[in-house]
Fold:
Amino acid sequence: MSRQRFYVTTPIYYPNDKLHIGHTYTTVAADSLARYHRLRGHDTWFLTGTDEHGLNLQRAAAQAGKEPLEYIDPIVEWIQHLWKRLHISYDDFIRTTEERHKRRVQQIFQKLYDQGDIYKGTYRGLYCVRCEAYYSEDELAEGNLCPIHQRPVEWLEEESYFFRLSKYGEPLLAHIEANPDFVRPESRRNEVISFIRQGLEDLSVSRTSFSWGIPVPFDPKHVIYVWVDALANYATALGYPDGDLYRRFWPADLHLIGKDILRFHAIIWPAILLALGEPLPRCVYGHGWLLIDGGKIGKSRAGSQVIDPLTLIDRYGVDVVRYFLVREVPFGADGTYSEESLVRRLNSDLANDLGNLVWRTTAMIERFCGGLIPDPSGAPATDLAQVAAEVRRRVEQHMDRFELNLAVAAVWDLIGRANKLVDEAAPWELNRRGEHARLGRVLYDVAEAARFAAVLLAPFLVETPERIYDQLGYDEDLRAVGWDAGLTWGRLPVGTRVRRGEPLFPRVDVESLFAGGDGAGEGSAGGQGGSAGGEASGQEPAAGAAPEITIEEFARLDLRVVRILEAEPVPGADRLLKLKVSLGSGGERQVVAGIARHYQPEDLVGRQAVLVANLKPARIRGVESQGMLLAAADDGRVVLVAPEQAVNPGSKVR
Ligand code: MSP
Structure:
């Protein structure tokens, strides 16, 4: 029997803007599906990339006074950095400006032309450069605006090549009707069917009004319509028509997209494939939108700062962001994003339920079992093994139907049941009464339930499953072991020594976070008093003399690793140096540090240090200081604090 395989794609992203939290939604969902199939041992391929041609980009580059690629390259780098921070496990990243893509798109165009599916004509119409699409008048929003972008459309008239889309309406309809899973969810399938039934017109597939695109091979004053160019990536990246990967993975199992680009994926692309005689993808899934304040993300000025995914990752950690995205929105429907709902999910699901389960389980094993996973065999099983098996089955069913939020929610039934069992069985009472056999059974089953939850969550979360294993003291690579073996009840070895660590998810105080401010940036920790990082008072409080603070209070500090880019003395201030430091993608800061008697400026350049990044800026001797570097003061010496190994500038210190 051949191995099951799974080829999943995201849309390729436009590099004309910073991606926001809504964009990350498609990619985190696709990544979770890819990780799930890999865990199950399926032959998996996950593709993403960037869509780099078209008038829009040509104009943006010209406005910036740059060549298109010079303009695009750093944005693509930024996108790849974002995916890295989100642990997106793509197997390939395709850029439509790559030779491997351009060559094959030309090959496709040529074939369609040679067989008569592309012909020459004239196009006249209203065009939105943002969509790179023509609209008929009745499709426009009020005021003759683009219905998607609410921007004016432009009148274009040009000689154009056309694709005989009209010829493929009927065969496509037949395919959709014979394959109920081809367009998902059901509402989108109905939308596509009724659109095709109205009749398809031939599609203009070349442009002469600008040059930033792939030239039509037999008529190079035309460039190929950017959507035809972009859609083909799903095949060109695999080496269409005869590459090994193409043979191995085509047709795609899933094109995961937002609902705004459904018609391109469920009509134009399949029609091109039909014309090429290639098999159609098994499923085009159009998910809903993540909205903010009832509108599209990215339209809201006020929200734009808060919904930068990198800021959220820095503030809450990658798994909190990933968890929120897959859990909050019923997959397929629209959902609302707010930082407050993210924090509530963090506090209730992650800190209270999951974090607490692991925390109390390891604490009780330490207290009652000498820190070793106890032997359960002396007492009858609890119901947890059965609940775990049932939950696993539900997770699998939901994943097969791409119901990500339901799959994740199912895991919480196991977590909830395990927490409840602890409350009901009251291990502290069992211990007091000397019922050690039952105590061992309860604590073993609860620990095993936590381990099960770690494996079940491994498609969605990228750090937490490993941290749970680590706290249980279990040194097994859960991703290598995979789904079936990992989900064998009783795998956790008796006698393993637990390693209690930090709580998995510190709670965030919602009230203080949202009272009047814009979140964690509000209110710096303690007064700065004017001296940045140096010999301020000369008197250090004795260790332990400072008043106790809570973890939430500590969490208000935004400590970041920085790289020192420049250092120079501050004229007239013999203790101070003015430094320029880099926070990586978080930009640069100027900081004044009282370390001039301890460091030569040139010795500092290139070093890493730790910055209190959310300290209220202050002027020191007339020079602005945007934060403070941490330094250890030891008997007259001042020594900068730095990470033990080099890390990416901007990394959080906690
Ligand atoms: N370049 C085209 C796709 C070409 S595919 C051959 C494109 N790029 S995009 O950058 O504008 O959007 C990429 C993806 O992000 C799309 O699936 C889009 O639906 C999704 N989203 C953008 N904003 C979104 C939300 N607010 N919510 C959910 N998904 C959103 O389209």
